[in-house]
Amino acid sequence: MEKExxxxxxxxxAKRYEVIRIVKLCLVYFxxxxxxxxTLVPFYWMLATSFKTLDEVIRVPATFIPQNPTIDNYxxxxxxxxxILIRYIGNTLLVGVFTTILVxxxxxxxxxxxxxxxxxxxxxxxxxxxxTMMVPGEMMIMTNFTTVADLNWLNTYQAxxxxxxxSVFYIFFxxxxxxxxxxxxxYAAKVDGNSDFKYLWKVMIPIARPAIITVVxxxxxxxxxxxxxxxxxxxxxxxxxxxxxxxxxxxxxxGGETSHIMMAATTVxxxxxxxxxxxxxxxxxxxxxxxxxxx
Amino acid sequence: xxxxxxxxxxTEIDNExxxxxxxxxxxxxxxxxxxxxxxxxxxxxxxxxxxxxxxxSLAPALLILLVFTFYPIIKTFIVSFFPSYxxxxxxxxxxxxxxxxxVLQDTTFWRAMGNTALMVIVxxxxxxxxxxxxxxxxxxxxxxxxxxxxxxxxxYVTNGIAFGLVFATIFSPxxxxxxxxxxxxxxxxxxHWTGTAYTIPYWAGIFVxxxxxxxxxxxxxxxxxxxxxxxxxxxxxxxxxVDATPKWRVFTKITVPxxxxxxxxxxxxxxxxxxxxxxxxxxxxxxxxxNGLDETFITAVGYIYKYFNSVTSGGNAxxxxxxxxxxxxxxVFIMIITxxxxxxxxxxxxx
Lengths: 295, 351
What we know:
Radius of gyration of chain A: 26 Å
Oligomer: heterodimer
CATH class of chain A: Mainly Alpha
Number of strands of chain A: 0
Shape of chain A: flat
CATH topology of the largest domain in chain B: MetI-like fold
CATH topology of chain A: MetI-like fold
Helix content of chain B: over 70%
Structural class of chain B: mainly alpha
Number of helices of chain A: 15
Shape of chain B: globular
Strand content of chain B: under 5%
Structural class of chain A: mainly alpha
Order of helices and strands of chain A: HHHHHHHHHHHHHHH
Distance between the termini of chain A: 32 Å
Helix content of chain A: over 70%
CATH architecture of chain A: Orthogonal Bundle
Largest sheet of chain B: none
CATH architecture of the largest domain in chain B: Orthogonal Bundle
Order of helices and strands of chain B: HHHHHHHHHHHHHHHH
Number of domains of chain A: 1
Strand content of chain A: under 5%
Number of domains of chain B: 2
């Protein structure tokens, strides 16, 4: 906010106004800091616990700062009996990258058709696609499971990739972006003798790049968080993705306290996304604000 | 080219979230379809020419959607009316409404709806109010605004299951959990907040779910509200300043009404989110969504997966029909919410 120009009857009044202003500002910062602390505590507790020894984890009362920090828990995740988690991370990255590539290709092409091409039944098909956005994924997962089983795809990568290889929401999102590109460019490209697909590649995709990056980001976050579908189709322990892998490793309560190792594992799982966020902060926040999914 | 580049590709978080609300767009699409008959002649001339290109560019997406979206929707709908459908043999058996009767007479189903309703009543309004307050405070400062914004956004880029486990550690049922340690410090005895081995008091479980939902949901809400707030014309506030309007009145009479499209949008997505919350419950209370004896903290979607999981893990193949019926009931709920949003968008929410 701009600094307000105010005039006061006396210097005393001006001073009082200034004091009230500063006190108010302090309260605002205090309130925001409390909220920020609330946001950060889980991150801190995850990190702190991941460096504790078993002795310290079960000490009463809990210690806020690890007394004798150790990296054994991380070694356990990387080398020990929990090292399969690294394979799960690899699986997730692989599935995430290929899903994203497939999604971008299919949605860009479809959005191109809906925004640029004229063909019979265009509006009917588009309305049908939009209607499916209202349908919760739970309606599809059951039949998809049987479809995947019939295809003999259980415990394969394609079962994790192909069913989510396109998205009506992204088709819609990209179409809106493509529609904003003026027709004049298209006619100019046509006059120059360019084909439609060349126009898509040389003009539409570069102009809509921010929107496509948004799709890539959201799709990667989505893949990293996917839980229900991967759990359903990857019952083989080699084929699990991180979320299901984490749960299956640590939630099968064997009685012993494992939260220090579990927190090391969650740190390892959380880091890739957090690092990506730090690198592409602006893109990610803008992308999320523009699209508004993840209900 | 550079000219429209500037307008079409905002470099900051733009204030178009309202426009990005895709349900509004869907509505506009249907409206424009009716009014947009002018280019029909053009279309008639061109569709022949574009036909094969359209087929080529739509084929990949449509193929996937046909197999993994349209077909399953129809199949699930049909299966829900065939109570003895067996997915292994694909035998349908007798038509009937037994699956729906099973769901509607199941106390677990009503517990799931009760839990969902409680989340809708408690955590949805609470998190929206907190997000609004934080946003207004955040918008009133200049220094460190970016830092706070990044901090508040962090939960968005976390893995839901991983941080569900972190919350389960913080709210550990043992004396050495963080929250229990703090409670013990002020003389309150430990509470069995989470876990699979203990009986969790209902209020404690709901409390943990609410705290997690607020923590997890703030990021998106603040982001949407902030971009909405930054799109409000400064003149409204200047006018209020001239009239020496009290801050609270400014908030209720200017900020909230002008943000109403975003508030409605966030309310709807949170409502649907409450129905769909599942993975966080699993991370907090285990696959059984309770303490093993009964699914104390089961949710609407959790109920569907309870049946679905028992099918996929080799249980009674005929339960798929029950899961389908429950999914269809969920679909009806979500459709009602969505239709309400479209209706409200049309009437209530404008400046």
